[in-house]
Amino acid sequence: MDNPTWQQVDDFLEKLLAPDDPTLSAALAAAEAAGLPAIQVSRMQAQFLHILARAIGARRILELGTLGGYSGIWLARALPADGQLVTLEAEARHAEVAAANFAAAGVSERVRLHVGPALETLPTLLAEYEAGFDLCFLDADKANLPAYFDWARRLTRKGGLILSDNVVRSGQVLNGTDASSQGARSLLQALGNRGDSAVLQTVGSKGYDGFALTIVE
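Predicted structure:
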């Protein structure tokens, strides 16, 4: 369901609102050179995450799905000097690339990178971070999205935000039978009738998708 106009508009918006940053471009190039999948958020989506974190005065952010560290750099840059990004990555090779990109971007001191399956790492964070994160960005595998969300709710303070990415999946959230579509649909069904969540459909260089935004009450 890609549309060339979506890409053209994204290009236009990026030039106006998010000019090229050599550090971020280098991070993308390093990820590509290492053979990582090109599934990171777009530049405008990353800038949205950055602004959202700044708007709520986030001091602690949890990210599931580090990949090459692109979104993590944007989030870390939104933090104050004593803030912290905790980011979880299942693949050791991805984490290696991300760590190098964090160092090159000068944000390593604000980043704690955990390597391993998120569902194994998340329980270990409870003692130190229970209800301590201001913002959680869920961008790991979507089959486990409902379980990730349950942990994020436990780890996020009241009034904090949880952003779950890729929940529309080109419309496959309606009746898709793959594990990712079913995971997204299960999450949205669990969020129904609570009054604390909204879903925004998106189009752009990443195609047709959307994210769910939840406020923790």
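Summary: Strands lie at 60-64, 84-89, 111-115, 133-138, 156-164, 197-204, 207-215.
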